[in-house]
Fold these 4 entries.
Entry 1:
Amino acid sequence: MCGIVGYIGKEQVAPILLEGLSRLEYRGYDSAGVAVYSEKEGGLVVKKTKGRLQVLSDVLQGGAALDGTVGIGHTRWATHGAPSDVNSHPQVSRSGRIAVVHNGIIENYVELKAFLIDKGVPFVSETDTEVVAQLVEYFYKGDILQAVYESLHLIEGAYALGILCADAPDQLIAVRKDNPMILGYGDGFNFMASDVTAVIKYTRDVVYMDNGELAILTRDGIQCYNSMMQPVEKEISRVDWEIDAAEKGGYEHFMFKEIMEQPDALRHAIFPRIRDGEVFFENFGLDEDYIRRMDKIYIVACGSSYHVGMVGKYNIERLLRRPVEVALASEFRYMDPILTDHTLVIVISQSGETLDSMAALREAKRLGATVLSIVNVVGSSIARESDVVLYTWAGPEIAVATTKAYSTQLAVLDLLALHFARVLGTIELGEYRATLDEFLLLPGKLETVLADRDQVQYLASQYFNHSSVFFIGRNLDYAMGLEGSLKLKEISYIHSEAYASGELKHGTISLIEDGTLVFALGTCGRLFEKAMSNVVEVKARGADVLAVTTESRREAMARTADAVMTIPDTCDMLLPSLGIAHLQLFAYYVALMRGCDIDKPRNLAKSVTVE
Ligand code: F6R
């Protein structure tokens, strides 16, 4: 949610900022802007525009229209004030000397604004960020770092800030609290950014700033300080993935590329974790004693990551005979959850920065629980604050709608369930080994599902103009339907709902009429007959039924459904990992046929760092 990039070096900065912002646009894309120090002008030049980054790039002629070698840039997902030129970042102080880019929310901005207005400071935008620029100027007596430091004492909320002062054009200031900020180290240049994707073209040496830290970037180095302004030495990490991982590589959309990358992503997530017929987690912080004492598991997450938790609940409870609760992170923190020292809280997050999930994690720790997180982005806040981290190793996910992160989160959670079951002795050795064999076959089986995409594309072409879609299923199929439904609505803007099939008759079936599109999910063998009964019920009321089932049940399903998509047979717990591919592809093709902006759906952003 909002992307920040800052550069200080010897090259012309504007094209570098635009390039960096293009890699961060997934974080927000309703407006963009840059501030550059120009020697010619003897001060800051600020350009910002409503709309996609391309609008700004056109205004700046790809960066050629701005002269300077130090600057900050921003791509916005509006919180305070509608997308407009004036509300775009950078926000500048009244004198035009101090420019600020911000990701997050200043919670006490109303009070701070009133305080500054009382002191005669005029405001031009509706943003909370302008308060920061004006406040820093209010404290500014010639030392910009000191002014920032004093301002931070008054500011409440979550923020990553990039600050440029015209009086100190040989430095940039970066600040981080509860929103991500990384520093990129180069030879004669340095970067700050919301995410490594913005700097990876220039450097792989990065530092993940910690909460409360400030940094001063010059051309020759970076000095970090803790919240007491004491210098701190930071460990430099080396990013180990290639730039191509964050590029489309010939695909029309990141989402499609990421759907197709899923088999490989699963190989990365699974293969190193199965050794000599056992689940193996490197540096795993939960010992067997802890696992045996565990009284309950809470899975806490948002959106698709929450849907992974829903699948996990069915799998873990069946395997462990231990209660599992799945909670939306935004609810968890206010629901006064019942946790003990023996409750394991599993936080699932692709970005590792989702504010609701982060807050839930802190609440869980405050209440004494142990927190294990399943995270994709290395070094992210959730990863760092958890007691134990399992990375999904899916590589950078750029499309706003998650696909490969979902699949790898699910695989890691399933492996964890299997490991717990083995320790607790709630799984027979034979079933354990057979399930692990199925894990090893999963990427290959998923490849065969993805190879069948022409059929899904054809079905999408038949149904893309429907205005409402239902996903029905029981148990694991219901949990999978939740994700299928979210995928469809977020990128194609078609209203859709996922229902536990047995619940339809308690009210919702009244919405089924001639031509209503129903996705019937019937992959679970032991519930197949029940699934069929529900298909018959909706068919009898005129629905068009597209079904997903296993190859062995294709024929039975085809007797009633209008079309059947199949997945290879596998053990129960892995069925959603295969079935979901059809639903992702369907959502993708429908959105394509409806002419939607697939990678950047309206009103959304990838990393949701506001409450
Ligand atoms: C949907 C989607 C979102 C995220 C949710 C949580 O396609 O991507 O629903 O799953 O915002 O994000 P993370 O996993 O980064 O915490």
Entry 2:
Amino acid sequence: MARIAVLLNDRCHPKECQGECQAYCPPVRMGQDCIVWGEDGKPVISEVLCIGCGICVHKCPFSAIKILNTPEAAEEEIVHRYGLNTFRLYRLPIPRPRGVVGLIGPNGIGKSTAIRLLSGTEKPNLGRYQDPPDWEEIVRHYRGTELQGHFQRLSRGEITAELKPQYVDQLSQRTGVALGEYVGESGGDAAAALAALGLTHRSDVPLETLSGGELQLAAIARSLATRADLYFFDEPSNYLDIVQRLNVARVLRELGDRASVVVVEHDLVLLDYIADQAHLLYGEEAAFGVVTSPLPMRTAINTYLGGYLREENVRFRPEPIVFTSHPPKPASQRTPRVTFGRLVKRFPRFALEVGGGTLYKGEIVGIVGPNSVGKTTFVRMLAGMESPDEGSPPSTLRVSYKPQYLRATGAWTLNERVASLRTGEGFDAELFQRELVPTLRLGSLLDVPLPDLSGGELQRAAVGLALARPADLYLLDEPSAYLDSNERMNVARLIRRIVEREASTALIVDHDVYFLDLTSDALMVFRAKDEQKTAGEGEGPFPMREGMNRLLRDVEITFRRDEESHRPRINKVGSVLDREQRSRGEYYYEPAA
Ligand code: ADP
Ligand code: SF4
């Protein structure tokens, strides 16, 4: 049986190892060229000679090799292969003439690859990276399928595709270009697109001074203003706050009413609202991905949450994700952890005021609100990293803080970091090894230098390090950022389990509604006091439902619950349910207890 052998190129450092992969490979020891050295000094693994023993995988000090069995998908369903010992994709999503198609799947499974192939940014090679087929052959390959016409028109230049790229931070490299000018390059109605995304007043601002969230909105605005037959949006919610996400959901939904749109998104509340149907993707990160047939949107997410796709006999996770209510416990069953008074912080151009509140043992408080209104400043005051100008934060708490921005300083590995923590700051190495490493899938990352880790891997590592520090109060700033939807739900459950078990307390700043719903008992709500965001205020904690009501009233969006999974779903604006809920002031439904 043939194998899939993948070399994670960024992880392989042949000058820093002893060539263990080759030295220990049994076929090599029998005289076969199963692993030879390439021109770049890195191993080239023969998938034909490999016997799948996995020895090289374990011997590589940088966890740079993956060896897998070929997937269930038939070999002729291969769409693209980047090269030898690299990622390959089986099957493709099918864009519809009108409406929005979603793609759901883990990081590194081929979603962006699929988008590049469908948009014509990359030509599918049907697996033949050394001898790529021409368009005629590609069209012939898809004869009789819905993709035949697509590739035919794409090859003749009859389809124009617009792609909102995943990595919007790169836009800041375009120095000296104003936001309005950038969106204007689309040649379409830039003013309307800027207005739809709330950017009109920022139109003269140069790209290099915009925040991550504004760059994301700029990229979306530009795509929106571009005339195209087919639109692709790769992770439109990254860097956006909860309010911006809900607005983008509305804008993309409207685009889908008049054009063909494909969206990759890990915030499932958002995708659920935007898309009419979705393809799930499964496989092995960085090695191979298989695209499933399309499912109606509600079924797609419920199947993903349920963990099993019967039609293709695919398991996404061992057990289903269940949304349950966390109603406030009776006062007699709650033990206060800490009561804090009013806190005020003044910066030269920003002032924050947070009303006092009480946090309880064994409970998690979500912090919601737009960006730049002081959520992180509040968390940093509680963590003792920022001193308030009025009021004093509780000082007797043991606090463990995961900052919003993760920096991989130096060439440390996670193992080295853990070893250094063990001696100094108080670190539960046993908990880390026993529970956090397996749940957060850190095992293969322990010896990798931190700068080699992807955003999602770094986030998982940071969450692990923060939770392994024994603390009364965990302060987690945007733990869902960079994680795929499966990892988000995994991390949500882990945080709840640890906080409940240890009777500690957690404050979580996040923008993903599923993540907040799965973790939080209560909510603190932050808002801007003026349009320029020169002042912010925070209130709460409120019970979950009241907190969401306060947030959603401002953005005029209502949520119902899915009958099967009890997950929150955005109501279509103006639908009977939406109007009825709004008239009752009921913006957010709690699931049954
Ligand atoms: P997703 O969008 O689902 O996160 P991607 O399509 O970005 O997944 O990537 C799938 C895999 O393909 C990753 O392991 C990535 O490193 C690899 N890959 C992407 N582009 C190339 C390329 N040009 N050459 C080799 N490998 C690539
Ligand atoms: Fe050699 Fe394959 Fe075993 Fe790796 S998994 S050591 S390449 S036979």
Entry 3:
Amino acid sequence: MDLILLGAPGAGKGTQGALLSEKLGTPKIATGDMLRDAVRAGTELGRQAKGYMDAGELVPDAVILGMVRERLAQPDAANGAIFDGYPRNAAQAASLDEMLAGIGRRIDAVVYLEVDDDDIVRRMGGRRTDPETGLVYHVEHNPPPAEIAPRCVIRPDDVEETVRNRLDVYRRSTAPLVEHYRQAGVPVHTVDGGRPIEAVQGEILGLLER
Ligand code: AP5
């Protein structure tokens, strides 16, 4: 199954994607995680991406396309993938459709996570990431285990001003993709992402099993 997790920054795409990936045995392709890995590794791609990411702007499509094409060619993605944070605009959606068609696949479903802006700002303020595993926690809703907590870090783009810009970019470029997929006849499941993590997960699994 090829599935897109769509939603604003902080809607819970990464959290739900990791749980779904484990449950379904399907790899998660998260362009944000891949870009952060490249920044940490100090690669040329990471150097190109960092300024855009720190400002909450989208990294140029050509950079993203090359990265996703390479990832999709890995053996573990031969039967499907969970796309998290990608595609993010109409051009990326068109290139993903084309890439999948080239290997005889198509997007089977979109899960659209809806969360209030104020909730999002609160979530970002409490988000902590384990740099060793990439796992995402929240100081209140999903605290890291005590032995891991000291090494957890705050993402540089989680400061409120950048979060607000990321929300604007999301509304302008990414939110219209809900309509793009509806019009293409792809099932779009709208899920209230404002509820506890387990409740959101249960609903997504139920919808995908139908
Ligand atoms: P990216 O990493 O994709 O960030 P994002 O889309 O802004 O989404 P986030 O990772 O912030 O949030 P999420 O929805 O995954 O939420 P999470 O599960 O972590 O992109 C970062 C940057 O990279 C972009 O700004 C851009 O510059 C660049 N980029 C990436 N992809 C790109 C692309 N395709 N094209 C161009 N540029 C690209 O949850 C958030 C917090 O809330 C966590 O602390 C979590 O524990 C908590 N939480 C989750 N669910 C719940 C819940 N149900 N209840 C309470 N707390 C919860």
Entry 4:
Amino acid sequence: MRSCPLAPPGRPDVRDFTYVLADDVASAGSLVHNDAVARAVQTPDDVAYVAGGTTQYDLMRDGVWSPGTLVDISRLPLADIEVSDDLLVVGAAVTMADLARHPSVVDLDVLRDSLLLAASPQLRTMATVGGNVLQRTRCRYFRDPTVTQCNKRVPGSGCAAVEGTARTHAVLGVDAGCIAVHASDLAVALVALDARVRTHGPHGGRTISVTQLHVRADEDPARDNTLVAGELITHLEIPLPDARSGYLKVRDRASYEFALTSAAVVARVEDGVLAHVAIGLGGVGSVPWRATRAEEVLRGQRASLALFEEAAAAELADAFTVPGTAFKPELARRTLVRQLRDVTEVTA
Ligand code: SF4
């Protein structure tokens, strides 16, 4: 473990911080956990992990986040990809670009496209898969420290987005307290693949379903995930499905843009019947959204466009909208129906 204090040059408004290069998982975890215990808080950000840094450095530059110590975990031995039978085990420090070109991923459409349709080639070369699933919201009000109303930054202060520009915000798992969207494409594919994360924390290791990793904004806008202080994602476990799959991303421009809506579908049709179906929705949820209502409508039923329409309508039935997001439920319904049709090749 090596460390040095850093003073950002020319930015007297940015707090000095200490940079620590971690040599092993256990000591990196202890450093973050012990800081949290000392300050008796559950989700510390005074000492924090950093790997690719594509989210954290933005937040620091914007003046939204000022950690006292960054623990760089990019040199930890977490950059391997292993395949055993029907399971892909991906180190958390694997970059998005490296995962996308792995032989087991190039033919897994939903995973490959969720990676290649995200960000830019430069960012995909820097960003790690562990950091991607834990990325913070892109809400412009959250990322502007001059905005005083933001329950995610300052609990109890309100939400500027509800009456502001909200085109890219969420309609599921939200209420008037926070409508921030979870921006990861990869995490949407992971929930449709029933993926899990392995972690190393102060109480040892555990495995968490990706559907249980994030916290909905309508439950606690100030908390992004269910990890405890010092808990580090070490690997992703991704089951390789015996099914067809696909990822459809709808956005305002063709590249380097977040989703307005997206749908990750994994499905297998046997004798015209949906024997397996799993769906993730992106661009619409405060968490990577597992479309369980739609799946209940579809599972075991004869595949048809009418059934797809019914399933999509059921999933969006309780959408919470503000003027800026009023178009989203209909767009999300159409996105899901289109992707169900494409993956199953059912057209009538
Ligand atoms: Fe803050 Fe959430 Fe409102 Fe954005 S949507 S301003 S993150 S409370």
